[in-house]
């Protein structure tokens, strides 16, 4: 699937998702970066989504829908790689960019102090 | 990871270099923390990636900044390793040959400088990726088609300079390069071919120019940093027609290749065909434990059961014809008639694309990272080494090479995942060693296997055309005719162009006069 078609599919998916909600500026920036970078492997059709589904189940397959990712974990995954995922250097994904992606991927987490599912 | 200094460079000299580099590009674009060094490591390292870890990275934004950096590096004798995107996965990523080398990260130089539809070429900087180029062509409805390798995270220029391949008639990417701008290791700037003329109107139209032609010298080399590249692009054809079939017997590969040879030589088939074995087909679908849960190489019976379950051939052939409908139809008939006379008598599946049909069916390169999924074949933290010897376009030779290659894989405890593609007069036999990077015993076996594969192919007269950082010298050693005459010539040119020996020392087995940096990996 082409990048443009993929992005369109992702946008459609997000629009219909029950978890779609208003995003803060930082989360919106993070979403744009996620959709332009991470989505090739971690979008609904991405092979990493398939691998995560197999390892963790449906609930935790799509990163953009996760409720249990943490900033430190995302940092390690991006800067050191995880499983077959290669690293991203700061020249291609700055610390500010990574912070925005983290804001986006942790937006659905339960508030700090609340009981985890 | 902690800082490893370049060989022979003191901490004070290194820090001075970092300050001088920052003076060129700004503090923001010099990367020198332990966290940064983790990101520089070969992501698919077959073993300990710290053996060839970079010390730092500097990311220029212009040709002038590249010149200034290389002048400083020459003055201070700091080894530099240039890359466009650093995604040459399976070949070392962006990692250097010599531990402590500073990366020259050209990712920020990512402008598409020209798209010339009239003459069918583009001019790009090193940081332009396949995704960005494809988007640009699509968004602007430019009727030029991109060729790309299977995994398209990398740089358009980097792939062409590394002699990468694709599957359109323009799939021999290095051969479509026309007109380079190059910063030499000393910081001098040259343009190749017609680009040497001030105000040339044909820099990207006629490669040779006047006198010696230097373009190929900058491919797979450490003689300069290419900052601009002209690349010919395929004009959108009137139609494309895909042909694919499955062969059901191992030995069919010989007849398949012998049938293809005259069709490639006379131009009936312009694009490179893609021929993959059953394991390659299975690996593209997911980890091995989906189809088999044993250890060691999959037994024949398990391969047969799995491939039949997923409707995969023993060998899976696909290619595509591009051009005017009358010509495409005529050539498709010739190809099918030739194969009808073989013992395979294949039933071809056809797919047709015409302008207006979905781009996914066209046969032009569609960027994707899905092919990376194959590295998960054995589970764990997947990685791969690619072994790609070039051999004569002969079915008999190919079959013998396939059998001996596969035997080595299986003796080492690995599955043979491989296949062939072809040029006009040669075969590229590509196979991949998959491993779990966290399994030291397995990566040890993978390294030993790779060395054995290089020796085995060389004994049959076949040589690697491209390899992982770890194996540069081993492969270069196999090009040893007349007492290593070619390596000696390469070294002479290196010393002439790079007297300080700072640019990518050891790349492709080409070392500068000062061998103090040579270390066995």
List the helices and strands and how they pair.
The complex is a heterodimer of chains A (117) and B (521).
Chain A (H helix, E strand, L loop, with lengths): L2 H14 L8 H18 L4 H10 L14 H10 L14 H11 L12
Helix pairs in contact in A: 1-2, 2-5, 4-5
Chain B lengths: L10 H15 L4 E2 L2 H7 L15 E3 L4 H14 L3 E4 L18 E4 L6 E5 L4 E4 L5 H10 L4 E2 L10 H6 L15 E7 L5 E3 L33 E8 L1 E2 L3 E9 L4 H14 L8 E4 H6 L16 H10 L5 E9 L1 H16 L8 E5 L28 E6 L1 E4 L2 H17 L5 E6 L3 E11 L3 H20 L3 E2 L7 H6 L3 H17 L24
Parallel strand pairs in B: 2-4, 3-4
Antiparallel strand pairs in B: 1-2, 5-6, 6-10, 7-11, 8-9, 8-10, 12-14, 12-15, 13-14, 13-18, 16-19, 17-19, 17-20, 18-19
Helix pairs in contact in B: 1-3, 6-10, 10-11
The portion of residues assigned to helices of chain B is 25-40%
Give the amount of beta strand of chain A, in percent: under 5%
Percent in helix of chain A? 40-55%
Mean pLDDT of chain A: 85
For the secondary structure, the number of strands of chain A is: 0
Q: For the record, what CATH class of the largest domain in chain B applies?
A: Alpha Beta
Which descriptors would you attach to this protein?
heterodimer, A: 117 residues, mainly alpha, 5 helices, 54% helix, 0% strand, globular, B: 521 residues, alpha+beta, Uridine Diphospho-n-acetylenolpyruvylglucosamine Reductase, domain 2, Uridine Diphospho-n-acetylenolpyruvylglucosamine Reductase, domain 3, Vanillyl-alcohol Oxidase, Chain A, domain 3, 3 domains, nine-stranded antiparallel beta sheet, five-stranded antiparallel beta sheet, 20 strands, 19% strand
Word description of this protein:
The complex is a heterodimer of chains A (117) and B (521). With 117 residues, chain A is an all-alpha fold. The model of chain A has no long low-confidence stretch (mean pLDDT 85). Chain A has five helices and no strands. In chain A, helix 2 crosses helix 5. In chain A, 54% of the residues lie in helices and 0% in strands. Chain B is of the alpha+beta class and 521 residues long. Chain B has three domains: 1-109 and 479-521, Uridine Diphospho-n-acetylenolpyruvylglucosamine Reductase, domain 2; 112-235, Uridine Diphospho-n-acetylenolpyruvylglucosamine Reductase, domain 3; 239-473, FAD-linked oxidases, C-terminal domain (Vanillyl-alcohol Oxidase, Chain A, domain 3, 3-Layer(aba) Sandwich). Helices cover 30% and strands 19% of the residues of chain B. Chain B has helices at 11-25, 34-40, 63-76, 130-139, 156-161, 252-265, 278-283, 300-309, 325-340, 395-411, 440-459, 472-477, 481-497; strands at residues 30-31, 56-58, 80-83, 102-105, 112-116, 121-124, 144-145, 177-183, 189-191, 225-232, 234-235, 239-247, 274-277, 315-323, 349-353, 382-387, 389-392, 417-422, 426-436, 463-464. The model of chain B has no long low-confidence stretch (mean pLDDT 96). At the A-B interface, helix 1 and helix 3 of A face helix 2 and helix 4 of B.
């Amino acid at each position: 699937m082409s990048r443009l078609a993929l992005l369109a599919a992702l946008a459609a998916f997000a629009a219909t998702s029950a978890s779609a909600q208003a995003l803060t500026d930082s989360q919106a920036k993070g979403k744009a970066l996620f959709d332009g970078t991470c989505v090739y492997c971690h979008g609904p059709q991405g092979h990493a989504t398939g691998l995560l589904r197999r390892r963790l189940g449906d609930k935790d397959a799509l990163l953009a829908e996760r409720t249990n990712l943490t900033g430190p974990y995302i940092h390690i995954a991006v800067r050191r790689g995880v499983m077959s995922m290669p690293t991203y250097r700061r020249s291609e994904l700055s610390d500010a960019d990574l912070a925005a992606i983290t804001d986006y991927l942790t937006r659905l987490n339960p508030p700090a102090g609340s009981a985890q599912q | 990871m902690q800082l490893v200094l370049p060989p022979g460079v003191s901490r004070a000299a290194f820090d001075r270099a970092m300050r001088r580099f920052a003076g060129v590009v700004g503090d923001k674009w010099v990367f020198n923390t332990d966290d940064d060094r983790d990101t520089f490591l070969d992501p698919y390292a077959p073993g300990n990636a710290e053996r060839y870890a970079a010390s730092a990275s500097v990311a220029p934004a212009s040709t002038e900044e590249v010149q200034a950096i290389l002048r400083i590096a020459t003055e201070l004798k700091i080894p530099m390793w240039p890359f466009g995107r650093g995604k040459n996965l399976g070949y070392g990523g962006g990692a250097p040959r010599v531990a402590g080398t500073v990366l020259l990260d050209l990712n920020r130089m990512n402008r598409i400088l020209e798209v010339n539809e009239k003459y069918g070429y583009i001019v790009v900087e090193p940081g332009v990726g396949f995704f960005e180029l494809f988007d640009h062509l699509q968004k602007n409805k430019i009727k030029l088609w991109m060729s790309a390798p299977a995994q398209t995270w990398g740089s358009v220029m980097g792939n062409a300079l590394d002699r990468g391949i694709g599957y359109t008639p323009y799939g021999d990417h290095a051969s479509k390069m026309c007109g380079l701008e190059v910063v030499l290791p000393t910081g001098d700037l040259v343009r190749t071919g017609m680009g040497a003329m001030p105000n040339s109107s044909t820099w990207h139209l006629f490669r040779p120019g006047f006198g010696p032609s230097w373009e190929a010298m900058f491919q797979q080399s450490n003689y300069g940093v290419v900052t601009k590249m002209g690349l010919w692009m395929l004009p959108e054809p009137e139609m494309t027609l895909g042909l694919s079939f499955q062969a059901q017997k191992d030995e069919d590969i010989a007849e398949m290749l012998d049938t293809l040879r005259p069709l490639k030589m006379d131009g009936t088939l312009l694009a490179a065909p893609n021929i993959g074995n059953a394991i390659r087909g299975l690996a593209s679908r997911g980890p091995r434990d989906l189809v088999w849960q044993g250890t060691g190489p999959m037994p024949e019976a398990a391969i047969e059961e799995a491939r039949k379950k997923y409707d995969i051939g023993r060998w899976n052939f696909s290619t595509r014809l591009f051009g005017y409908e009358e010509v495409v139809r005529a050539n498709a008939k010739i190809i099918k008639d030739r194969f009808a006379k073989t013992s395979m008598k294949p039933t071809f599946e056809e797919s047709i694309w015409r302008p207006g049909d979905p781009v996914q069916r066209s046969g032009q390169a569609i960027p994707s990272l899905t092919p990376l999924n194959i590295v998960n074949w054995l589970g764990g933290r997947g990685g791969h080494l690619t072994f790609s010897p070039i051999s004569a376009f002969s079915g008999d030779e190919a079959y013998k090479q396939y059998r001996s290659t596969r035997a080595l894989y299986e003796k080492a405890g690995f599955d043979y995942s491989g296949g062939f593609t072809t040029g006009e007069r040669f075969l590229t036999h590509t196979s991949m060693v998959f491993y779990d990077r966290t399994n030291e015993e397995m990566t040890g076996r993978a390294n030993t296997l790779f060395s054995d594969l290089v020796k085995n192919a060389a004994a049959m007269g076949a040589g690697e055309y491209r390899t992982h950082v770890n194996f540069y010298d081993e492969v270069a050693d196999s090009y040893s005719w007349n007492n290593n005459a070619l390596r000696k010539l390469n070294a002479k040119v290196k010393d002439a162009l790079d007297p300080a020996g700072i640019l990518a020392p050891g790349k492709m087995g080409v070392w500068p006069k000062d061998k103090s940096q040579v270390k066995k990996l």
